[in-house]
Structure formats: C-alpha cells, structure tokens
Specification:
The chain has one domain: P-loop containing nucleotide triphosphate hydrolases (Rossmann fold, 3-Layer(aba) Sandwich). Helix content is 59%, strand content 12%. The chain has a five-stranded parallel beta sheet, with helices on both faces. α4 packs parallel to α5. It is globular. The C terminus is likely disordered. It binds adenosine-5'-diphosphate.
C-alpha cells in the first residue's frame, strides 16, 4: 500500500493520511510536518527552509529530495507508506520515480482531494497554524495552482489517479477513501 495524497492546502490530506496510516500501520510522511519540526529544532534543514515556509513559498526541490531520500532509507518504509504534501512539483515527481526504482519500490496510487476554494480558505484559517495567515494562505494557494496542479495530469496519464470529494466531513472522507480502496480494506480485514 503505497499512496500519494495530492491536493491543495487545507484539503484534509494530513488528517486522512494520519488516520489511514494508523489503521494500516504504515508510515505517514508529511514533508510539512518534517519541515516544521526541523524549523522548531533549528536544524540545518530548518534554518534553510524557514524563510520559504514562512513566506508560503515552496522549499527548494534539492532540500526536499534530500529529506525524502533519507526517509526512504529507513526500514519501516518497506511495508508501505503514505506521502502527504510530496511530491509538489513535477521535478519532485520525476525524482521520486527514480528514487522508487532505485529502492525497488512499487509505484504508488495517487489520491487527489478535490475541495472548493471556499472550504479551503475556511479550513486553513480554522486550524490556526503559525504559517496559516491570510496572506500566506493566499500565496500557498497560488503556488499550488502554478506548481502542483500539473501533477494531476502527470498521474492521470498513468491511470493511477483516484479523485476524492474532499468537501465532505472528515469521517465521511475516511469512509469514502476506505471504500475506494477495496484491496486495502480487505487486506486490513484479513489482518484483524
Ligand atoms: P499545506 O497542506 O497547508 O500546504 P504542508 O504542511 O503540506 O501544508 O506544507 C507547509 C509548507 O511546507 C508549504 O507551504 C511549503 O513551504 C513547505 N513544503 C511542504 N512540503 C513541500 C514540498 N514537497 N516541496 C516544497 N515545499 C514543501
């Protein structure tokens, strides 16, 4: 079970990724969480990433790929994973392809969370994260439109894209996700 959760800021990717990763017992890799922890810990990655995150801009691909590469070296990645907030640019998606080949890992299914602009604005403002000011949210949405939406096409062409209506309540979205991924539901049932 290898998944990419793709969608705009505030789409609920992180919420769903953490619920399903817990249920399926696979790592939930959120590049946003990793970056926020690095910034709080003032690590070398954090120091380099901080101004980008605070401005609502993307952190340079080279830094993101270094952290992803390192994460893929950990043994817990062998059984499956959920990538949340990565890849976010075509260059990252292409670099991920190479990395998966190198680590002999299968290519993931991509779940695309579709959410109305109104819901996105309300949700990001409601969660009150430090980088969730009105100005950075606007910027993050613009960056998403420019740099990340091309990935929808990229994964659609590979026929590995599953569209999910992310406007529903978190509980409803979890149910929709479980129902759309019957293979994983039954493997989960088999384990219980
Ligand atoms: P959101 O879902 O609200 O966009 P994230 O936690 O995924 O929040 O990301 C927060 C910030 O971290 C982004 O605005 C960006 O600055 C940085 N970031 C996270 N993931 C990536 C990535 N894959 N590439 C570049 N920057 C990233």
């Amino acid at each position: 079970m290898q998944f990419i959760f793709l969608g705009p800021p505030g789409a609920g990717k992180g919420t769903q990724a953490s619920i399903l990763a817990d249920r399926w017992q696979v790592p939930h890799i959120s590049t946003g969480d990793i970056l926020r922890a690095a910034i709080a810990g003032k690590t070398s990655l954090g120091i380099q990433a901080r101004t980008h995150v605070e401005a609502g801009e993307l952190v340079p691909d080279i830094l993101i790929m270094a952290l992803i590469r390192e994460r893929f070296e950990a043994p817990d990645m062998k059984q499956g994973w959920i990538l949340d907030g990565f890849p976010r640019t075509l260059a990252q998606a292409q670099a991920l392809d190479k990395l998966l080949t190198r680590f002999r890992q299968p290519h993931p299914q991509t779940i695309y969370f579709e959410v109305s602009t109104e819901n996105l604005a309300n949700r990001t403002l409601a969660r009150g994260r430090q980088d969730d000011t009105a100005a950075t949210i606007r910027r993050r949405l613009a960056v998403y439109q420019a740099d990340t939406t091309p990935l929808i096409d990229f994964y659609e062409k590979r026929e590995c894209l599953i569209n999910i209506d992310g406007n529903r309540s978190p509980e409803a979205v979890t149910q929709i996700l479980q129902a759309s991924l019957p293979v994983y539901q039954s493997s989960r049932l088999a384990r219980v």
